[in-house]
Protein backbone atom coordinates (compact mmCIF):
# COMPACT_ATOMS: atom_id res chain seq x y z
CA UNK A 1 0.00 0.00 0.00
CA UNK A 2 1.47 3.31 -1.16
CA UNK A 3 0.38 6.91 -0.88
CA UNK A 4 2.70 9.77 -1.84
CA UNK A 5 6.05 9.26 -3.55
CA UNK A 6 7.92 12.39 -2.54
CA UNK A 7 11.52 13.48 -1.87
CA UNK A 8 10.33 15.10 1.36
CA UNK A 9 8.23 12.61 3.37
CA UNK A 10 6.04 14.05 6.11
CA UNK A 11 4.51 10.82 7.45
CA UNK A 12 5.07 7.06 7.57
CA UNK A 13 2.71 6.79 4.60
CA UNK A 14 5.16 8.64 2.32
CA UNK A 15 8.05 7.04 0.43
CA UNK A 16 10.86 8.75 -1.43
CA UNK A 17 11.49 7.91 -5.09
CA UNK A 18 14.72 6.19 -4.06
CA UNK A 19 12.96 4.08 -1.42
CA UNK A 20 10.21 3.12 -3.84
CA UNK A 21 12.69 2.13 -6.54
CA UNK A 22 14.70 0.06 -4.05
CA UNK A 23 11.59 -1.78 -2.87
CA UNK A 24 10.51 -2.58 -6.43
CA UNK A 25 13.98 -3.89 -7.22
CA UNK A 26 13.87 -6.09 -4.14
CA UNK A 27 10.49 -7.47 -5.18
CA UNK A 28 11.79 -8.21 -8.68
CA UNK A 29 14.97 -9.85 -7.40
CA UNK A 30 12.97 -12.02 -4.99
CA UNK A 31 10.75 -13.27 -7.84
CA UNK A 32 7.59 -11.27 -7.16
CA UNK A 33 5.44 -10.38 -10.15
CA UNK A 34 2.92 -7.51 -10.00
CA UNK A 35 -0.75 -8.29 -10.61
CA UNK A 36 -3.78 -6.06 -10.16
CA UNK A 37 -6.22 -6.31 -7.28
CA UNK A 38 -8.90 -7.43 -9.74
CA UNK A 39 -6.68 -10.29 -10.94
CA UNK A 40 -5.89 -11.26 -7.35
CA UNK A 41 -9.51 -11.11 -6.15
CA UNK A 42 -10.80 -13.33 -8.93
CA UNK A 43 -7.85 -15.72 -8.77
CA UNK A 44 -6.98 -15.04 -12.42
CA UNK A 45 -3.25 -14.47 -11.88
CA UNK A 46 -1.13 -15.45 -14.87
CA UNK A 47 2.25 -15.60 -13.11
CA UNK A 48 5.24 -17.67 -14.30
CA UNK A 49 5.93 -20.90 -12.44
CA UNK A 50 7.93 -20.47 -9.25
CA UNK A 51 7.17 -16.77 -8.92
CA UNK A 52 4.97 -14.93 -6.43
CA UNK A 53 2.19 -12.42 -7.18
CA UNK A 54 2.29 -9.03 -5.49
CA UNK A 55 -0.35 -6.31 -5.70
CA UNK A 56 0.93 -2.73 -5.74
CA UNK A 57 -1.87 -0.42 -4.55
CA UNK A 58 -1.88 3.38 -4.54
CA UNK A 59 -4.45 5.33 -2.53
CA UNK A 60 -5.73 8.90 -2.96
CA UNK A 61 -4.65 9.52 -6.59
CA UNK A 62 -1.79 11.81 -5.56
CA UNK A 63 0.00 13.71 -8.32
CA UNK A 64 3.31 12.24 -7.14
CA UNK A 65 1.97 8.83 -8.15
CA UNK A 66 1.25 9.84 -11.73
CA UNK A 67 1.44 12.84 -13.98
CA UNK A 68 2.35 13.26 -17.63
CA UNK A 69 5.26 15.26 -19.00
CA UNK A 70 5.17 17.41 -22.13
CA UNK A 71 5.75 14.34 -24.30
CA UNK A 72 2.70 12.60 -22.84
CA UNK A 73 4.79 10.09 -20.88
CA UNK A 74 4.91 9.49 -17.10
CA UNK A 75 6.92 12.26 -15.47
CA UNK A 76 10.28 11.43 -13.94
CA UNK A 77 10.25 10.19 -10.32
CA UNK A 78 6.51 9.56 -10.28
CA UNK A 79 5.48 6.10 -9.14
CA UNK A 80 4.39 5.04 -12.62
CA UNK A 81 7.64 6.17 -14.24
CA UNK A 82 9.73 4.37 -11.62
CA UNK A 83 7.67 1.19 -11.93
CA UNK A 84 8.00 1.13 -15.70
CA UNK A 85 11.73 1.76 -15.44
CA UNK A 86 12.27 -1.13 -13.01
CA UNK A 87 10.09 -3.43 -15.11
CA UNK A 88 12.12 -2.62 -18.22
CA UNK A 89 15.25 -4.02 -16.57
CA UNK A 90 13.68 -7.07 -14.87
CA UNK A 91 12.13 -9.79 -17.01
CA UNK A 92 8.64 -10.90 -15.89
CA UNK A 93 8.20 -7.90 -13.58
CA UNK A 94 4.97 -6.51 -15.03
CA UNK A 95 4.49 -2.71 -14.94
CA UNK A 96 0.97 -2.86 -13.50
CA UNK A 97 -0.62 -1.55 -10.31
CA UNK A 98 -4.03 -0.65 -8.87
CA UNK A 99 -4.90 3.01 -8.27
CA UNK A 100 -7.66 3.92 -5.84
CA UNK A 101 -9.17 7.13 -7.12
CA UNK A 102 -10.66 10.00 -5.16
CA UNK A 103 -11.24 13.64 -6.13
CA UNK A 104 -9.46 15.37 -7.69
CA UNK A 105 -7.54 12.61 -9.51
CA UNK A 106 -3.80 13.23 -9.74
CA UNK A 107 -3.97 16.95 -9.07
CA UNK A 108 -7.10 17.53 -11.13
CA UNK A 109 -5.55 19.00 -14.28
CA UNK A 110 -6.18 16.80 -17.34
CA UNK A 111 -7.67 14.19 -15.00
CA UNK A 112 -9.62 12.37 -17.72
CA UNK A 113 -6.54 12.12 -19.92
CA UNK A 114 -4.54 10.66 -17.01
CA UNK A 115 -7.21 8.09 -16.15
CA UNK A 116 -7.44 7.03 -19.80
CA UNK A 117 -3.65 6.69 -20.06
CA UNK A 118 -3.51 4.43 -17.00
CA UNK A 119 -6.33 2.24 -18.27
CA UNK A 120 -4.83 1.97 -21.76
CA UNK A 121 -1.50 0.85 -20.27
CA UNK A 122 -2.92 -1.95 -18.12
CA UNK A 123 -3.28 -0.21 -14.78
CA UNK A 124 -6.39 -0.83 -12.68
CA UNK A 125 -8.70 2.04 -11.75
CA UNK A 126 -10.27 1.32 -8.37
CA UNK A 127 -12.75 3.24 -6.23
CA UNK A 128 -11.76 5.24 -3.13
CA UNK A 129 -14.91 7.46 -2.81
CA UNK A 130 -15.52 11.00 -3.99
CA UNK A 131 -14.34 12.87 -0.89
CA UNK A 132 -12.51 10.30 1.28
CA UNK A 133 -14.90 10.37 4.28
CA UNK A 134 -14.64 7.95 7.19
CA UNK A 135 -17.56 5.78 6.14
CA UNK A 136 -18.57 4.79 9.68
CA UNK A 137 -19.43 8.45 10.39
CA UNK A 138 -21.85 9.05 7.51
CA UNK A 139 -25.32 7.79 6.64
CA UNK A 140 -25.99 4.78 4.44
CA UNK A 141 -27.23 7.05 1.66
CA UNK A 142 -24.02 9.08 1.84
CA UNK A 143 -21.96 5.91 1.71
CA UNK A 144 -23.62 4.82 -1.51
CA UNK A 145 -23.43 8.37 -2.91
CA UNK A 146 -19.68 8.51 -2.24
CA UNK A 147 -18.95 5.14 -3.81
CA UNK A 148 -21.39 5.28 -6.72
CA UNK A 149 -20.43 8.89 -7.43
CA UNK A 150 -16.74 8.04 -7.80
CA UNK A 151 -17.59 5.07 -9.99
CA UNK A 152 -19.65 7.36 -12.20
CA UNK A 153 -16.78 9.85 -12.56
CA UNK A 154 -14.29 7.13 -13.45
CA UNK A 155 -16.63 5.64 -16.05
CA UNK A 156 -17.38 9.06 -17.51
CA UNK A 157 -13.65 9.37 -18.23
CA UNK A 158 -13.02 5.70 -19.11
CA UNK A 159 -16.29 4.02 -20.15
CA UNK A 160 -14.75 0.54 -20.50
CA UNK A 161 -13.06 0.51 -17.08
CA UNK A 162 -14.32 -2.27 -14.79
CA UNK A 163 -13.95 -0.51 -11.39
CA UNK A 164 -14.39 -3.82 -9.60
CA UNK A 165 -12.40 -3.22 -6.39
CA UNK A 166 -12.65 -0.66 -3.59
CA UNK A 167 -10.22 0.65 -0.96
CA UNK A 168 -11.86 1.83 2.25
CA UNK A 169 -10.89 5.40 3.23
CA UNK A 170 -8.71 5.04 6.34
CA UNK A 171 -9.54 1.34 6.27
CA UNK A 172 -12.88 1.92 8.01
CA UNK A 173 -16.08 0.11 6.99
CA UNK A 174 -19.51 1.74 6.93
CA UNK A 175 -21.90 0.56 9.63
CA UNK A 176 -23.28 -1.91 7.11
CA UNK A 177 -20.20 -3.63 5.69
CA UNK A 178 -22.16 -4.92 2.71
CA UNK A 179 -22.56 -1.35 1.43
CA UNK A 180 -18.81 -1.32 0.79
CA UNK A 181 -19.27 -4.23 -1.58
CA UNK A 182 -22.48 -3.38 -3.43
CA UNK A 183 -25.10 -0.67 -3.62
CA UNK A 184 -26.73 1.97 -5.78
CA UNK A 185 -27.14 5.74 -5.82
CA UNK A 186 -28.74 8.04 -8.40
CA UNK A 187 -29.00 5.28 -10.97
CA UNK A 188 -25.41 4.06 -10.64
CA UNK A 189 -24.91 0.54 -9.28
CA UNK A 190 -21.63 -0.85 -8.00
CA UNK A 191 -20.34 -4.27 -7.00
CA UNK A 192 -16.80 -5.01 -5.86
CA UNK A 193 -14.87 -8.26 -6.02
CA UNK A 194 -12.64 -7.04 -3.20
CA UNK A 195 -12.77 -4.41 -0.44
CA UNK A 196 -9.33 -3.40 0.84
CA UNK A 197 -8.30 -2.58 4.40
CA UNK A 198 -5.33 -0.42 5.43
CA UNK A 199 -3.14 -3.07 7.07
CA UNK A 200 -1.29 -4.85 8.30
CA UNK A 201 -0.38 -8.32 7.07
CA UNK A 202 -0.23 -10.30 3.83
CA UNK A 203 -3.52 -11.17 2.18
CA UNK A 204 -4.50 -14.84 1.97
CA UNK A 205 -4.73 -16.71 -1.28
CA UNK A 206 -8.02 -15.93 -3.04
CA UNK A 207 -8.47 -19.71 -3.28
CA UNK A 208 -8.16 -20.21 0.49
CA UNK A 209 -11.21 -21.03 2.60
CA UNK A 210 -10.39 -18.02 4.78
CA UNK A 211 -10.44 -15.49 1.94
CA UNK A 212 -12.87 -12.68 2.84
CA UNK A 213 -13.47 -10.31 -0.10
CA UNK A 214 -14.96 -7.72 2.28
CA UNK A 215 -11.78 -7.55 4.37
CA UNK A 216 -8.63 -7.88 2.27
CA UNK A 217 -5.56 -6.85 4.28
CA UNK A 218 -2.66 -4.88 2.88
CA UNK A 219 0.89 -4.08 3.97
CA UNK A 220 2.06 -0.47 4.21
CA UNK A 221 5.28 0.19 2.33
CA UNK A 222 7.79 1.02 5.05
CA UNK A 223 11.44 0.56 5.98
CA UNK A 224 12.79 -1.04 9.13
CA UNK A 225 12.25 1.97 11.41
CA UNK A 226 9.44 4.28 12.49
CA UNK A 227 6.03 3.71 14.00
CA UNK A 228 4.53 0.40 12.91
CA UNK A 229 7.69 -0.80 11.15
CA UNK A 230 7.15 -4.30 12.51
CA UNK A 231 4.05 -4.51 10.30
CA UNK A 232 5.54 -2.76 7.27
CA UNK A 233 6.75 -4.12 3.96
CA UNK A 234 10.42 -4.52 4.90
CA UNK A 235 9.57 -6.60 7.96
CA UNK A 236 7.08 -8.77 6.06
CA UNK A 237 9.38 -9.32 3.08
CA UNK A 238 12.10 -10.42 5.51
CA UNK A 239 9.69 -12.88 7.16
CA UNK A 240 8.49 -14.31 3.88
CA UNK A 241 12.04 -14.66 2.58
CA UNK A 242 12.92 -16.59 5.75
CA UNK A 243 9.86 -18.84 5.40
CA UNK A 244 9.33 -19.16 1.64
CA UNK A 245 6.61 -21.84 1.95
CA UNK A 246 4.29 -19.13 3.29
CA UNK A 247 4.33 -17.28 -0.02
CA UNK A 248 1.82 -17.88 -2.81
CA UNK A 249 3.95 -19.61 -5.43
CA UNK A 250 2.62 -20.01 -8.94
CA UNK A 251 2.55 -23.36 -10.73
CA UNK A 252 2.55 -21.50 -14.04
CA UNK A 253 -0.98 -22.54 -15.05
CA UNK A 254 -3.71 -20.03 -14.10
CA UNK A 255 -6.40 -22.66 -14.78
CA UNK A 256 -5.06 -24.95 -12.04
CA UNK A 257 -4.97 -24.41 -8.26
CA UNK A 258 -2.01 -26.20 -6.70
CA UNK A 259 -1.04 -26.60 -3.06
CA UNK A 260 1.78 -28.34 -1.16
CA UNK A 261 1.37 -32.11 -0.84
CA UNK A 262 4.11 -32.41 1.77
CA UNK A 263 2.45 -32.22 5.19
CA UNK A 264 5.67 -30.82 6.63
CA UNK A 265 5.05 -27.56 4.80
CA UNK A 266 1.27 -27.54 5.10
CA UNK A 267 0.28 -25.21 7.96
CA UNK A 268 -1.63 -26.92 10.73
CA UNK A 269 -3.22 -23.80 12.19
CA UNK A 270 -5.72 -21.34 10.74
CA UNK A 271 -3.41 -18.38 11.32
CA UNK A 272 -0.61 -20.06 9.36
CA UNK A 273 -2.98 -21.31 6.67
CA UNK A 274 -3.70 -17.70 5.73
CA UNK A 275 -0.14 -17.29 4.50
CA UNK A 276 0.32 -20.66 2.86
CA UNK A 277 1.25 -20.99 -0.80
CA UNK A 278 -1.74 -22.27 -2.76
UniProtKB/TrEMBL annotation:
Keyword Signal appears in the UniProt entry: yes
Locations listed in the record: Secreted
Protein name as catalogued: Xylanase
Taxonomic path: Bacteria, Bacillati, Actinomycetota, Actinomycetes, Actinopolysporales
PANTHER family found in the cross-reference section: POLY-BETA-1,6-N-ACETYL-D-GLUCOSAMINE N-DEACETYLASE, PTHR34216
A GO CC term assigned to this protein in UniProt: extracellular region
Highest taxon of source: Bacteria
InterPro entries: Glyco_hydro/deAcase_b/a-brl, NODB_dom, Polysacch_Deacetylase
Gene Ontology biological process terms in this record: xylan catabolic process
Region (Disordered): 208-231, 244-278
Keywords, alphabetical: Carbohydrate metabolism, Glycosidase, Hydrolase, Polysaccharide degradation, Signal, Xylan degradation
Main location as per UniProt: secreted
Database matches in Pfam families: Polysacc_deac_1
Ranges for domain NodB homology: 48-176
The keyword ATP-binding belongs to this UniProt entry's keyword annotation: no
Amino acid sequence: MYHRITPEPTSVYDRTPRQFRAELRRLAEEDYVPVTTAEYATGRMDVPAGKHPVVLTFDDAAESQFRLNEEGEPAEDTAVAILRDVAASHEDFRPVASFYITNPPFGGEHAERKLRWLHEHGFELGNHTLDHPTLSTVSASEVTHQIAGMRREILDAVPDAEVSTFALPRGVHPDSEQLARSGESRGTRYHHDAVLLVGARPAPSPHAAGFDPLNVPRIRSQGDSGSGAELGSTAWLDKLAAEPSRRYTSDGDPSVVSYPADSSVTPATESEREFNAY
